[in-house]
Amino acid sequence: QPQLVESGGGSVQPGGSLRLSCAASGFSLDDYTIGWFRQAPGKEREGVSCITRSHGNAHYKDSVKGRFTISRDNAKNTVYLEMINLKLEDTAVYYCAADVVGDYCLTDHLYDNWGQGTQVTVSS
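and the corresponding structure tokens:
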């Protein structure tokens, strides 16, 4: 059974940075497209970033472009989401997900394998 474990969340002030990790067990992450999603209280889950399995193409939600960077370390079987210049509206629980998905990879219903989530809180 594939398992994903997120870590790296925390509380930061606006303008701060965090790096989220998504570690996999039971399968190789480079065989899957990995997506990062987030859900804020009272809001629907939304796709933030994803990196495809075949070419490693990275995609981002418009509001995080230039601030978030997704990357993959195949040796560690881990995908990262580097977040800089964090804003209040980035506050949410962040989840990583894995599945065989193409470039339209910011859609959550395409994924069957999910982690438990990690909380990111941006507050002054």
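(Above: one complete record from the training split.) The chain is about 0% helix and 50% strand.
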